[in-house]
Amino acid sequence: MPSPPQQIASPPRETMSREASGASVSSAPVPEPERQQGQGNQGEEAGWTPLEKVADKVEELYSLRDTFFPRDPSEKSASLRACADAALGVLDSLPPGYSSTGTAGSVTDASRTEQPPTTQSEQRKSPEERVIYEFLMGKILDVFPDYCKEAEEHLSKAVKLNPSLVDAWLCLGNCIWKKGNLASARNCFLLALSKGTDKKILCQLSMLERSMAQSSEDQALLVEESINHAKEAVMLDIKDGNSWYNLGNAYLTSFFASGAWDKARLHHSIKAYQNAEKDETMKLNPDLYYNCATAYKYLENYESAIRGFEAAALKDPALRADIEVQKIINLLDKLENAMKVPSVTIGRLRPKRSASLVSSLNEVNFKLFHKKATISILSGGLNKTVAVVCKVVLWIRHDDDAPLYYLTCDLDQSYFILSVYGLQNEAIKEGDRVVLLEPYYKILDISWKEQRYKFKSIRVDFPEQIIINEKAPAAHHVARASIRAQHKP
C-alpha cells in the first residue's frame, strides 16, 4: 500500500548564520587581537592595530547583512559586495607577513591563487598572525548567500594552523553547509564543541539538525536533538535572545514533524519567541516575528498572527509577510460569510425541511464511552468524554492546505465552524455525518481595522478524533505533516 500523501506545512524561516549582535542565528565573532599600549578609545581607529581595523570592517559587513532589508534584494547584494571589498582593502593593507600571499584582492577576483611564503619577513611572521588573517579572509568571503570555495580554503587553513580556534570551525561549518555537505558541516560544529561549550555553536548545530531531519529516516530523533541543543544554549545564557529564538524554531519544527497536532509545542515556541524579543538586538530580526506569527496562526489566534506578520513585513519587505496577512483576512471573510449561509438558506425553507437537515443525526451510533452533546453545552477548551454529532453543510476553501474548514450543524440546528487537521480534503464531503470526539471548543472573536469577526468553532487536531459516516477515516485520507526547512543567509 502506498504511503499517505504528505501535507506540506509551514516550517519556521531560519537564517543559516547571522551575528547574535545583528539579528538571527549567530556566526563566529571576529577575534579581538590585543590593542597596542597608548591607543585611544575603542571607537577611534587612530590607535587600532591593522587587525583591529579589519575586525571592525568585518563586524560592519555582517551587521549590514543582518539588519539591511531593502525592498529590492539586488540593492542589498550590491551593498554587501561594496562593504566586503572595503574590508578586503583593509586586510590588503596588512604587512605581508600576515598572510602567505601578502595580498587580499577583491571578492570579484576569482583568479586569485595562494602562493607559498617567499620572503624572510613572511617566514618570520608568527603562526598566530597567519591564523587570524586566514580566518578573517574566509569570513569576509563567506558573507554572501552562495557557497564560496575560496572562503572554505581560507577557513580550512585557519583550522589547520590552529585546531583550537573555535570561531574558525564555526565559520567553516557554515561555509560547508552552503555547499550542501550537511554531515561535514555537523562535524565542524561538533569539533568546535569539543573545544568547549558555546551557545553560538549549539544554536548552529541545533538548526543544522533541523535541516538534516528533512530527508532523514530518523527525523523525530534529529528534531529532538535539535531541541536539546537549543535548550543547552539557553541554559548557558538565559538573556541571549538568539538562543531563545533558536529554541522557538526548534519547537515550531517539532510541531510539524510530529504531525501538526500537538498544540503544546506551539505554546512552547511562542514562549521562547517572547523571551527572545526581550533582547533588544532581536527586535531587528524579521524572522522572529514571522515565525511567531506562524505559531499563532496554527493556534488559530488570528489577531496575534496578523500583527506578527505585519511586523515582519515592515522589517523585511522581501519576506512577503503582507501576503500572509491578506490570506488570513481572506480566510476570516470566508468563515464569516459561511456563517451567514444558514440564516439565508433556512429562511427560505419550511420548518419541516429545515429540521430534516439534521434529523438523520439522531440515528448516528458509536460504540465509545462518550456522551452525546451539542455545541451549546460545551466548555471553552478541551471537552473530554464528550462527542458532538453534526452534519457537514459546506466545505470552505481557502489559500492554505491546512487546516480544513467546514460549516457544520449539530442536533440543535446550531451552526459552527469546524477546523480539521491531519486529513486530506477528500476525507470529508458536504452532507457527511461526523462525530467529533473530545472536541476543542472556542469562540473566535477577532477585531482588525474596524472589522469584527465572531463565531463558534470546534477544532479537531488528529484523525482519531473524528468519525465520518460511522467509520474511521480511511488510511489513504490521512495527511502527514512534513518539515521543509527554509534557510536564508
Automatic annotation (TrEMBL):
It comes from the Eukaryota. InterPro entries: TPR-like_helical_dom_sf, TPR_rpt, TTC5_OB, TTC5_OB_sf. The gene is LOC123078275. TPR repeats lie at residues 286-319. Signal peptide: none annotated. Residues 99-121 have a biased composition (Polar residues). This is Tetratricopeptide repeat protein 5 OB fold domain-containing protein. Residues 19-29, 36-47 have a biased composition (Low complexity). Residues 1-52, 99-127 are annotated as: Disordered. PROSITE patterns: TPR (PS50005). Residues 371-481 form the Tetratricopeptide repeat protein 5 OB fold domain. It holds the Pfam family TTC5_OB.
